[in-house]
Amino acid sequence: MKAAAKEVTIVMVEDDEGHARLIEKNVRRAGVNNEIVPFTDGNSALDFILGSDRTGASTQDRHLLILLDLNLPDMSGIDILEKVKSNPHAKRLPVVILTTTDDEREIQRCYDLGANVYITKPVDYDSFANAIRQLGLFFSVMQVPGQ
Amino acid sequence: MPLTTNTFARSSILMLLVGAAILIGIVLSSLFQARMTQSYSDEVIELRNARTSASNLFALVQAAETGQRGYLLTQNDNFLDPYERSMEQVIESLERLDGALRQEQTYSETIPRIRFLVEEKLTELRDTVALAQAGDSARAIEIVRNEYGREVMEELRELLLSLIQSLDTRLNEGLAELTDASKSMQWFAIGGGIVIIAVVGGAIIIVSQHVRELSRARSAVEELNASLEERVEERTEDLMQANREIQRYAYIVSHDLRAPLVNIMGFTSELDATLAAVKSYVLADGGTPTEDQIREARLAVEEDLPEAIGFIRSSTKKMDGLINAILKISRDGRRELKPEPVDLSQLLENTAASIYHQVDEAGGEIRIAVGGARGMVSDRFSLEQIFGNLFDNAVKYRHPDRPLHLAVRAMPARRNSIRIEVEDNGRGIAPEDHERVFELFRRSGVQDKAGEGIGLAHVRSLVRNLGGEITVTSTLGGGSTFIIRLPSDLSQFVRSSGS
């Protein structure tokens, strides 16, 4: 997040608070100190990303990186991905899918819809922590487009 | 009463045999009658010949006598002509009569007598004519005068007349017999014809009945075929649907069980890491812990340890909850169904009674219209669970701005099923979530109510167990209608699906 590193906000949509906590811990361990805004359901996350009117106008001057779980209580993460990627203001926001599902079709579908990265949460914690830390390292070098 | 192929074959063959027997009877009796008629007519012809011969004979004898008398009186040879002619023909005629009546026993005495008389008469005639020709007319006349010839002639006439009379009588009898024979033949033919018409008519009726039954059976088979195909298609569709759902179910279960597992393993590792900080403080090995070590150990004990333990505990609890929910659905699926007659209207009223208070208090209303689909045979417990869940949902997810209007309608649907609609004016479900709401652990819309995402999954599995299907039509904010299709007789469904 080189140039704009300071302004980038990580939006974490994760219904499992334990997962959210583990992800946050490991992202921090990778030295990423950006603000993380957690959401446990799809509606409130969409309210934040696209605004309560869902037009996306409010995202125009924000730098967001979305960390998305697919299985949410109120809607599917795919619905969120679809809405974000089809919104003219939000479509360039990088979306990282981080989920327990390793279903081949699900992965393809996410990339078809415009997901930037798809990561399966390993059950083994060492691998999990490693994956998140590497993701954190990845965050520290990637560019997030300004809207 | 359906006519089986066997009885049909038997009765039609019987009909044919009867018809053939009657035909043969008619032909045989016709032959017999014809033969009889022939013999009657032969007899009649014979009798007629005999009669003609008899009358001819008398006429000839008379003619010969007349010729003789003329000659004796006049000595004119002209009278000898008819005499001679008659004399020649008399014997011929006599032989013909004899021939005609030879077989007749009745005349066995008459004919020789006639022959004798004729010969006597001819002898007398011949003698007198010979005497006259020889010039002895006086003796000839003497012979005539002694009256023997006249007596012979008299007897002959009487004999012949009575013979002719008797022949006439027999002729009449023969003709009457002929008429009778032809009449009886006519009646016999008419009777036979009527019987044949009856047999043929019966055969036609039986055949047409059979043909009608065949075509009826064929159309029934065709209908069955068509409905069978339809049923096979329906069942295949159901199976594919069930298969998709099992896959989806396995996917959800594995995913949802894996999520708490990640937590448990993660926080166990975090515990390990925290333990290192605590260890370095507690087991300082005689040395004084540094300022940093103290701070870290404090932080670990105050924050990290309780946090990790809390997450491990809640994840374990969650896993237990998930497993229990799965077990519940699995148990319901295996519960023995008890098909019994259910008054749907009564059942809906009873189930609605538990939410009536809540609805009434908020100014809402519940309308139940069961109409023509009142009676059904199904599992009472399952039905109560289904409608109980749906009614609870209606109350739970009612629209915050308006009182709840809940309507339940039931109507008979095609192929022995009942369609039940549960309509509310609640907050509704977005179109993309119409399938999702029936999935285990999945919910839809704003998460402002407590719940685990089990209710509708449970309802769907209950409806499926009863051989039915549940779907929803809804728009976000516009209320929902749950449509349930159930077989009206569960026991029949259980039988036909072989479970």
TrEMBL record, chain A:
Q: State the Pfam families in the record.
A: Response_reg
| CDD domains tied to this protein | REC_Rcp-like
Q: Does the keyword Phosphoprotein apply?
A: yes
Matching InterPro entries: CheY-like_superfamily (IPR011006), Sig_transdc_resp-reg_receiver (IPR001789), TCS_response_regulator (IPR052893)
Q: Which residues carry this modification: 4-aspartylphosphate?
A: 69
On whether Phosphoprotein is a keyword of this UniProt record, the answer is yes
Q: Write out the entry's keywords from A to Z.
A: Phosphoprotein
**Domain named Response regulatory: residues:** 9-136
Reading the lineage from the top rank, the first entry is Bacteria
Query: Sorted alphabetically, which PANTHER family does this protein's record hold?
Result: RESPONSE REGULATOR RCP1, RESPONSE REGULATOR RCP1-RELATED
Please identify the protein, giving its name as recorded. Answer: CheY-like chemotaxis protein
From TrEMBL, chain B:
User: Catalysed reaction(s)?
Assistant: ATP + protein L-histidine = ADP + protein N-phospho-L-histidine
**Ranges for the Histidine kinase domain?**
252-490
Key words, A-Z: Coiled coil, Kinase, Membrane, Phosphoprotein, Transferase, Transmembrane, Transmembrane helix
The entry lists its GO molecular-function terms as: kinase activity
Q: Does the keyword Transmembrane apply?
A: yes
Q: Where are the transmembrane segments?
A: 12-32, 187-207
UniProt-listed InterPro entries: BphY/WalK/GraS-like, CHASE3, HATPase_C_sf, HATPase_dom, His_kinase_dom, HisK_dim/P_dom, HisK_dim/P_sf, Sig_transdc_His_kin-like_C
**Coiled coil regions, renumbered to chain:** 207-245
Say if the entry is tagged with keyword Coiled coil.
yes
Enzyme class, one word?
transferase
UniProt EC number: 2.7.13.3
Q: Which PANTHER family match?
A: BACTERIOPHYTOCHROME (PTHR42878:SF15), TWO-COMPONENT HISTIDINE KINASE (PTHR42878)
Annotated protein name in UniProt: histidine kinase
Specify the species. Pseudorhizobium tarimense
